[in-house]
Design a protein that fits this description.
Elements lengths: L13 H8 L1 H10 L14 H15 E2 L3 E2 L8 H19 L3 H17 L5 H11 L4 H10 L23 E8 L2 E9 L4 H8 L1
Antiparallel strand pairs: 1-2, 3-4
Helix pairs in contact: 1-2, 2-3, 3-5, 4-5, 4-6, 6-7
Length: about 200
């Protein structure tokens, strides 16, 4: 492991990586390496992970067989929670130039929305606007595919709404004789006698 130098013939040409993976993958990988102000070891193997993430993100919008799969249905509470948690995280990370944790936030959101099988416009469009500083080319292309006129750069930035991320229930552990027997999802506004009755 040593610094890149023409003298040692160990340089990596960004043009080659851009032609193989695309400029957005290269850009996001650079951001994902670590904090902006620190020097980071370069490892081309890691770029594959970012490339896979972008392909997974693309599949939220486009199916290889069906084409565009974005629906105009109303989002569920769970989907809104994922979106607003992501808005909050990306906003904070971008403000403090912590791009590596921002990229990680996108990966988490994409995995959660994939698990929820979410293809809803009201969730995906704001997520796409958040992605613009990180992967502008893919964001612009998907924006056009969604039938929007004009550039995504002129779109209104999504605002975080705390009401969507407030927890309404909690997973409680149930122990009998000091041993964990099960866990129960109980509403946060349930009174103690009510909780005791449910557990018994």
């Amino acid at each position: 492991i040593e610094k890149m130098s023409k003298r040692y013939y160990n340089t990596v040409n960004p043009d080659d990586l851009c032609s193989k993976y695309g400029a957005d993958t290269f850009r996001m990988y650079e951001m994902f390496l670590g904090p902006v102000e620190m020097s980071k070891p370069w490892d081309t193997k890691g770029i594959e992970g970012v490339h896979r993430f972008l392909k997974k993100f693309w599949r939220l919008f486009v199916d290889e067989i069906k084409g565009l799969v974005v629906a105009n249905d109303e989002p569920t509470a769970e989907e809104l929670k994922v979106l607003h948690n992501t808005i909050k995280k990306i906003e904070q990370d971008t403000e403090r130039f912590s791009f590596n944790t921002g990229v990680s936030g996108f990966m988490i959101a994409t995995n959660e929305l994939t698990d929820l099988k979410c293809h809803k416009r009201k969730i995906l469009e704001p997520l796409l606007i958040l992605l613009v500083p990180y992967a502008p080319h893919i964001a612009e292309e998907l924006w056009a595919l969604l039938g929007n006129s004009g550039s995504i750069l002129n779109a209104t930035y999504p605002t975080f709404e705390a009401k969507y991320v407030v927890e309404s229930s909690k997973e409680y552990p149930v122990s009998i004789n000091g041993k964990l027997r099960t866990t129960m999802n109980i509403s946060l506004d349930a009174a103690q006698p009510e909780v005791e009755k449910m557990v018994l």
